[in-house]
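$ ./design --mode recover --in tokens.txt
reading tokens...
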């Protein structure tokens, strides 16, 4: 599947269909923007996208995409909508005591909603919140449901994860169960910030496990097309 991100597609050929991917990266590494741009491009091509916002309201995602020149409103207003939000943030903010997106109901609602469409693309923003708030076995059950749906109905499903927030055993568990893992790194070199993406794992595909530099710009994630570190 082409991501619509030129340098990435040229180097890795896109992302494989029928996969659940962990996007691993700390704050400011570009993992969320990569997911948002990929899903925006997919929705613009006609694919149904479901984006679960758990740590922030949907308005933040709209603003983040708008900041790089991408307007979600037309994709939300098509009939049927190509971009759909699951807003699991607002019920907590408004202190709703009980509901489908609160407490123990949240994982069930996410599982039912994220696995109901055929060949839809999804994102959970973030898996880290779920891992911190719920039993890891219950969270892995959600991931396994996504994997089953991906195998049966197709689609690409992204789990945004900050590995710095978890015990190494938890990170290893996530890496073991998902189909693929993309690691985003941000480093300061000689007073300049450098970003890079590494494909750490990709099942059923002959992806090269290289490191691809990129930049975060006012157009979003821009991958280098002439420089690649093997």
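writing sequence...
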């Amino acid at each position: 599947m082409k991501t619509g991100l030129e340098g990435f597609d040229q180097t890795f050929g896109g992302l494989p269909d029928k996969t659940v991917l962990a996007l691993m990266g700390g704050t400011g590494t570009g993992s969320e923007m990569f997911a948002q741009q990929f899903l925006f491009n997919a929705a613009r091509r006609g694919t149904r996208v479901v984006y679960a916002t758990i740590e922030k309201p949907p308005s933040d995602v709209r603003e983040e995409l708008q900041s790089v020149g991408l307007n979600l409103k037309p994709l939300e207003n098509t009939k049927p909508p190509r971009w759909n939000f699951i807003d699991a943030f607002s019920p907590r903010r408004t202190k709703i005591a009980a509901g489908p997106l609160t407490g123990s109901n949240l994982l069930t609602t996410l599982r039912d909603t994220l696995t109901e469409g055929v060949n839809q693309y999804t994102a959970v923003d973030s898996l880290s919140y779920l891992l911190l708030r719920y039993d890891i076995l219950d969270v892995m059950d959600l991931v396994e449901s996504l994997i089953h749906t991906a195998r049966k109905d197709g689609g690409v499903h992204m789990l945004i994860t900050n590995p710095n927030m978890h015990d190494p055993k938890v990170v290893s568990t996530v890496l073991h169960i998902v189909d693929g893992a993309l690691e985003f790194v941000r480093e300061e070199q000689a007073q300049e910030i450098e970003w890079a993406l590494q494909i750490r794992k990709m099942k059923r595909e002959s992806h090269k496990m290289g490191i691809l530099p990129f930049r975060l710009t006012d157009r979003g994630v821009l991958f280098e097309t002439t420089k690649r570190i093997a």
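exit 0
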